[in-house]
Amino acid sequence: MSEHKEPSRRDATAPAGNAARPVTLRINGQSHTLQLEPRTTLLDALREVMHLTGTKKGCDRGQCGACTVLSNGRRIQSCLTLAVMQEGRDLTTIEGLSDGDALHPVQAAFVAHDALQCGFCTPGQICSAVGMLAEARAGEASAVQPLAAPTLPLGDEEIRERMSGNLCRCGAYPKIVAALREVGGRQGKR
């Protein structure tokens, strides 16, 4: 009986002769052409090939949200999408949110409210929050607000529901909610 050996994730991100193909990704405003196997996840391309390690590999199953990035402004779990599926899209990682030394408003609110402990989930939380606020601004429905209507400023229950796909092992949820209440309130008054 022959044993079937699964290739490791690291093998999937390394150029592998004829199996690798050019994939052009627009990441944080710049185009990059990478040689990737078609089965390479966006998460592995970002971390292992592009060395953008702000995006975290938590569960690698789409359950924790640590790998959340933005694709055309929409939040996605980078461990669940293949890099080749993101060609032609604008990808934003945590590294691309700030403008030089000027933090994105969500990043600044996280700092001001001390909305982190170990920080492992923070990049995914912040990217998810940026996408979530855009969804709310656009009037997208949620389980709390089922009818499509602009929902800013956001209440605590709405924030918790919309951020429910991002887990924090340290339990910093009250401070995360406070940070997003502040940012959502400011954006709701524009």
From TrEMBL:
<dbReference type="GO" id="GO:0004031">
    <property type="term" value="F:aldehyde oxidase activity"/>
</dbReference>
<dbReference type="InterPro" id="IPR052914">
    <property type="entry name" value="Aldehyde_Oxdr_Iron-Sulfur"/>
</dbReference>
<dbReference type="GO" id="GO:0051537">
    <property type="term" value="F:2 iron, 2 sulfur cluster binding"/>
</dbReference>
<dbReference type="InterPro" id="IPR006058">
    <property type="entry name" value="2Fe2S_fd_BS"/>
</dbReference>
<dbReference type="InterPro" id="IPR002888">
    <property type="entry name" value="2Fe-2S-bd"/>
</dbReference>
<protein>
    <submittedName>
        <fullName>2Fe-2S iron-sulfur cluster binding domain-containing protein</fullName>
        <ecNumber>1.17.1.4</ecNumber>
        <ecNumber>1.2.3.1</ecNumber>
    </submittedName>
</protein>
<dbReference type="InterPro" id="IPR036884">
    <property type="entry name" value="2Fe-2S-bd_dom_sf"/>
</dbReference>
<feature type="compositionally biased region" description="Basic and acidic residues">
    <location>
        <begin position="1"/>
        <end position="12"/>
    </location>
</feature>
<keyword id="KW-0408">Iron</keyword>
<dbReference type="InterPro" id="IPR036010">
    <property type="entry name" value="2Fe-2S_ferredoxin-like_sf"/>
</dbReference>
<dbReference type="InterPro" id="IPR001041">
    <property type="entry name" value="2Fe-2S_ferredoxin-type"/>
</dbReference>
<dbReference type="Pfam" id="PF00111">
    <property type="entry name" value="Fer2"/>
</dbReference>
<keyword id="KW-0560">Oxidoreductase</keyword>
<feature type="region of interest" description="Disordered">
    <location>
        <begin position="1"/>
        <end position="31"/>
    </location>
</feature>
<keyword id="KW-0001">2Fe-2S</keyword>
<dbReference type="GO" id="GO:0004854">
    <property type="term" value="F:xanthine dehydrogenase activity"/>
</dbReference>
<dbReference type="Pfam" id="PF01799">
    <property type="entry name" value="Fer2_2"/>
</dbReference>
<keyword id="KW-0479">Metal-binding</keyword>
<dbReference type="GO" id="GO:0046872">
    <property type="term" value="F:metal ion binding"/>
</dbReference>
<dbReference type="InterPro" id="IPR012675">
    <property type="entry name" value="Beta-grasp_dom_sf"/>
</dbReference>
<keyword id="KW-0411">Iron-sulfur</keyword>
<feature type="domain" description="2Fe-2S ferredoxin-type">
    <location>
        <begin position="21"/>
        <end position="97"/>
    </location>
</feature>
